[in-house]
Design a protein that fits this description.
There is one protein chain. By secondary structure, the chain is mainly beta. The protein has one domain (18-105). The chain contains no helices and seven strands. A six-stranded parallel barrel has the order 1-4-3-6-2-5. It starts with 21 loop residues before the first strand and ends with a strand. It holds the Pfam family Septknot. InterPro entries: Septknot. Residues 18-106 form the 7(1) septoil knot domain.
């Protein structure tokens, strides 16, 4: 039967959090949680972070993986992320660094 294939199973489709760069808005209001693409936890330890992010001060230079310009307006953001205080509810853990060359994404 053509509808039932027993061959290789399909890989699960997930969002790639390593493609988050550019202008980012961090949503903290739980009423707008559904507008966000990911739920993030802002961690203090770099060793346990999924992304080590460099905070860029100019939107034009936020053009690489894990380099973010934090915008104060949701309308101008390329990505909207909901910030949670509970690490267990987060999709990814983010740590901010002060050195641009340390910015990385761990899958």
């Amino acid at each position: 039967m053509p509808f039932f294939k027993t061959g290789a199973s399909a890989q699960p489709v997930g969002k790639d959090h390593c493609r988050i760069y550019g202008s980012v808005y961090l949503e903290r209001d739980a009423r707008y949680k559904n507008d966000a693409a990911y739920t993030v936890f802002l961690g203090e330890e770099e060793a346990f972070a999924d992304m080590v992010v460099y905070r860029e001060s100019n939107k034009l230079f936020a053009d690489a993986t894990a380099v973010w310009y934090l915008t104060p307006n949701k309308a101008f953001a390329d990505h909207i992320l909901y910030v949670t205080d509970n690490r267990n509810l987060a999709d990814i853990t983010v740590h901010f660094t002060t050195v641009r060359s340390f910015a990385t994404c761990r899958e």
